[in-house]
Design goal:
homodimer, 390 residues, Aspartate Aminotransferase, domain 1, Aspartate Aminotransferase, domain 2, 7-stranded mixed beta sheet, 40% helix, 15% strand
Chain lengths: 390, 390
């Protein structure tokens, strides 16, 4: 059987995740699971307000209620206004492409900018699907480590990885898995370097600012989008995180209003054809109708923060070396003993499940999802305590 | 602004459609529209049974109700059973990949099999998105005309178009825009040729059987899927046609159970990574829960058939050269005078809108969508009568 090279490369790029997912609870009875803190999936019932707004939008009000939908005018207007207020940049509805979640928006950005063999810089550690999404487009992921210790952007390391084939640098902020939010000064340093390198290679290097966790921040910390400091930036966003409902696919790709008019027109004109060509990459009709409401809904961020505090406090006290996240669903740290596979196996024996750093190409580290309930997190503590000695 | 070559080629491939869509009703007041018979969109309220089943599935019954969904076990089982009964082939749930409608399934098939520069044969006339979907993947569409007059498959013409780079032949049955359903004998002839050519070029040429209109057939006519006569066949399907609700994205790609076990395993294993890599190409959670119900629902096919009969009868009587469709939403024929742009302009002046054949690379012909209401169709008749003289 000859699959395409792209399909084989895609499977290889995500093989570690599939291997983990298919096996991590094999042989474990559900009753023996104290806490599954692996994926950023919901462990509590969905927001009632989410359910009621979508149900209301399932009730047809016109013959074209479930007709083909692309980037509908109303959600694009709502989002442009909200983004303008949130990021301080003058977005217009034409800058917004409605997509099947952030996955759809990232895929759209890759398709708009990358041809086969071209390169996209992604962070290490980083989200475990960038590589597969690039390989599906016959493009080349180039992993660049974040700064050791802080997981801040390492601008010199990014610069060193740039070649004439580099088209995109993915900046994921707040960052999965570390929870780091990049500060404005560092982003300005990045922007200056990219401006210089773009001139050098003779075409603009884009930033894809992957911001699905943008509104999931702790301690009132500020947020700067790379779009504010670097015109050649596209932003992807998903409602799947803030609503903790990733099985309802809605998000968007936003074109930076700071781009030149000609560049904005080119990107706007190409978006819809590429979304159709990709596979009708637009959200379902009822979700698009609900955007005005979705913009007002959120899981309880204060509760998420208190789960972060509880776990981060306990683990740090027991000697774990943890990164204190400023946002996202996750808590990231070094596995005691430095072998995350061995460490997660010990936790597993206690009915506690976390993600080994192997899924992020950092086998020394591990990730905890804070989307588990407060009860699960309490129930997990003794296992973390017992495993603290490595 | 340097977009990717793929994005530019995608825009070019679909430019005629965009140009038509953005302008065809410009300057026309809604009250002056007698009948918009262009796109296969709904013109009546959605099926109440569709609304009630999806609304019921919006009510969460578990904490993971809106968690990430891939190809869920229940819908895959329902579909495998239904397909087994319908096509007489022994599908198993593992053969089914749940996708974002037929667009998602076609995109998945292309990604699984095609690398950049490889070729896919598509019918002329044919659905106007294949080219864009191929270009988004840097693959090459090769248009092969259907048999003149009958629009049956022209096996010799397909054979003549095959090169060592040919990986897929798209067979769309029932066929958009002509409504032709290919008979078993012709499909067997195609299968024999493809078997021979596959041996010649040293790797299997696949059929992608694009069957979203499979259940929209008239006069009780039989249906043979290419999968029944040619093992190297993938089937794509969408619920968007039979439910006339394309704004709710759900469909599937089915792997032919007649393939060897090794080939099935390879395709099954690669499907999910490629769906993730493509952009989380799975239907939203509530739609997946509803598949058992969706399988039982349908628009009124008898009514569609009577609209076909009414229009086909009237136009033929007035001297139009029309193809009598055996299925689909469409009626296809030759524009009086042989210039579809001029013809559609004349209809437009009467408030009647149809698609010029330019969108299908057959400028002499035109397409009518039968999804307009019976009232619209009655209201359109005088305009068709007046335009009959070319």
């Amino acid at each position: 059987m000859e699959l395409s090279e792209r399909a084989t490369a895609t499977s290889n790029a995500i093989a570690t995740v599939f291997e983990f997912f298919s096996g991590y609870r094999t042989g474990v009875e559900d009753r023996d699971v104290r806490a599954d803190l692996t994926f950023g999936n919901p462990h509590e019932m969905p927001l009632p307000s989410l359910v009621s707004t979508i149900k209301a939008r399932m009730e047809p009000r016109a013959t074209n209620w479930f007709a083909y939908k692309t980037s509908e005018e109303e959600p694009c207007t709502v989002i442009a206004d909200a983004l303008t207020a949130e990021l301080g940049l003058p977005f217009t509805p034409a800058d917004i492409a409605m997509t099947q979640g952030a996955f759809g928006a990232i895929g759209l950005a890759f398709s708009l900018l990358l041809d086969p063999g071209e390169e996209c810089i992604i962070p290490l550690p980083g989200w475990f699907c960038y590589g597969a999404m690039l390989r599906t487009r016959n493009a080349v992921p180039v992993q660049v480590p974040l700064a050791e210790g802080t997981f801040d952007l390492d601008v010199a390391a990014i610069e060193a990885a740039i070649t004439p084939r580099t088209r995109i640098v993915v900046i994921n902020t707040p960052h999965n898995p570390t929870g780091v939010i990049y500060g404005r000064a560092r982003l300005e340093e990045l922007a200056a370097m990219l401006t210089r390198k773009s001139a050098e290679i003779g075409r603009p290097i884009f930033i894809l600012s992957d911001e699905p966790y943008r509104r999931i921040r702790f301690d009132g910390i500020a947020f700067t989008s790379p779009a504010a400091v670097y015109p050649h930036t596209l932003i992807d966003y998903s409602y799947g995180k803030i609503l903790l409902a990733p099985g309802l696919r809605i998000g968007y790709l936003a074109i930076n209003p700071l781009l030149s008019e000609a560049e904005k027109v080119a990107l706007r004109s190409a978006a819809q054809p590429s979304q159709i060509g990709g596979g009708w990459n637009f959200p379902d009709a009822p979700l698009q109708y609900a955007v005005r409401d979705l913009e007002t809904l959120s899981i309880d961020i204060a509760e998420l923060q208190s789960k972060r505090d509880r776990l981060h406090g306990a683990l740090t006290q027991w000697g774990y070396d943890m990164t204190r996240p400023d946002g996202t669903f996750y808590l990231w740290g070094r596995a005691p003993g430095g072998d995350s596979v061995n460490f997660t196996r010990r936790l597993r024996e206690q009915g506690v499940f976390v993600m080994p750093g192997t899924l992020f190409d950092r086998p020394t580290d591990f990730r905890i999802s804070l989307t588990g309930t407060a009860e699960m997190i309490e129930a997990s503590l003794s296992a973390f305590h017992a495993a603290a000695d490595g």
